[in-house]
Design brief:
Elements lengths: L5 E5 L5 H13 L5 E5 L7 H12 L7 E5 L10 E6 L4 E5 L5 H7 L1 E6 L17 H15 L10 E2 L13 E3 L2 E10 L4 E7 H6 L7 E8 L2 E9 L12 E5 L4 E6 L4 H5 L4 E10 L3
Parallel strand pairs: 1-2, 1-3, 3-5
Antiparallel strand pairs: 4-5, 4-6, 6-7, 8-9, 9-10, 9-15, 10-14, 11-12, 11-15, 13-14
Helix pairs in contact: 1-4, 2-3
Length: about 280
């Protein structure tokens, strides 16, 4: 039977730090396959970490072990854990909001706090600032290699105690839809909401509509413009802003041959809200 692979995401960039995490795993078992998801999460942004996990988890086989290290509370009393998901995968992470989308959309069957006495890289006890290497990668490697069972990760605690980020629920009615900015693709400037394509369609929006789009940060308007709802970039002129359906089947905006994220420095999470209203209303 093949051993489970490990998929890693962090906020500290691909480099020597992630290399040491890979090395710790290789010391335990050089046959374990380690893959990178992303190491470009906005520093300290545990909401973005949660969404990025949600984005990739469904596309990996049962048994995959995800290591997510976005850990502004490293070295404090925040829990380090391994969550067993209802789809058969596992997430090794600080319990600081990173599991929010797992709880809401995939489901967490069980969660265990990592025993730092048994499942920490032995030579690093004097260091309190790199649990990505010393605790999360090491524990994930032991688990993937079969050196420990899931039960040997550490003591179980109630799923209800998992730290969850607050959200703004998406709402839709005839000619209008509201929600929050769920994610931002900094490379192409794709700004994605949590408003589903199904809800958007049920509210009566269709391709070709011109839609008043308003984005607020802490209730202050930072963007307001009437833009078209089209299938993809190719249906608007170069430089024009558009609304389209994202690969996660949610509504997003972008600028053709541009980067609206960099222009307006949009963020994500419940402080950033978006509304769509048909121009005719």
């Amino acid at each position: 039977m093949n051993k489970p692979c490990i998929v890693m995401q962090t906020d500290f960039g691909k480099g020597v730090s992630t290399c040491t995490m890979e090395g710790v795993i290789a010391q335990l078992d050089p046959e374990i396959r380690v893959y990178d998801s992303t190491h470009d999460i906005t520093p300290f942004d545990t909401y973005e970490a949660s969404y990025d996990l949600f984005y990739v988890v469904a596309f990996w086989p049962r048994g995959t072990i995800f290591v997510s290290v976005v850990d502004p509370g490293v070295g404090t009393s925040r829990r380090a854990c391994v969550a067993k998901l209802k789809n058969g995968c596992y997430v090794v992470t600080p319990d600081n909001g990173t599991l929010s989308h797992m709880v809401k959309y995939i489901g967490v069957e069980e969660v265990r706090e990592i025993d730092e006495v048994r499942n920490r890289y032995p030579s690093t006890l004097a260091c309190s600032i790199f649990h990505g290497r010393d605790l999360f990668a090491y524990c994930a490697g032991k688990f993937a290699s079969g050196l420990i069972s899931y039960e040997e990760v550490g003591p179980r605690y109630p799923v209800e105690e998992i730290v969850i980020h607050s959200t703004v629920e998406a709402l839709a009615k005839e000619g209008m839809a509201t929600g929050m900015l769920e994610t931002a693709d900094r490379h192409f400037g794709l700004i994605c909401s949590n408003i589903s394509q199904k809800a958007f369609a049920a509210a009566g929006f269709s391709y070709g509509d011109r839609v008043m789009t308003v984005i607020r940060h802490d209730k202050e308007i930072v963007y307001q413009e009437v833009i078209p709802f089209v299938k993809s970039f190719g249906f608007v002129q170069k430089g024009q802003v558009l609304i389209m359906v994202s690969e996660t089947l949610e509504m997003q905006i972008a600028r053709s041959y541009g980067n609206i994220y960099e222009e307006y420095h949009f963020g994500t999470g419940p402080d950033w809200t978006i509304s769509f209203t048909k121009e005719s209303l």
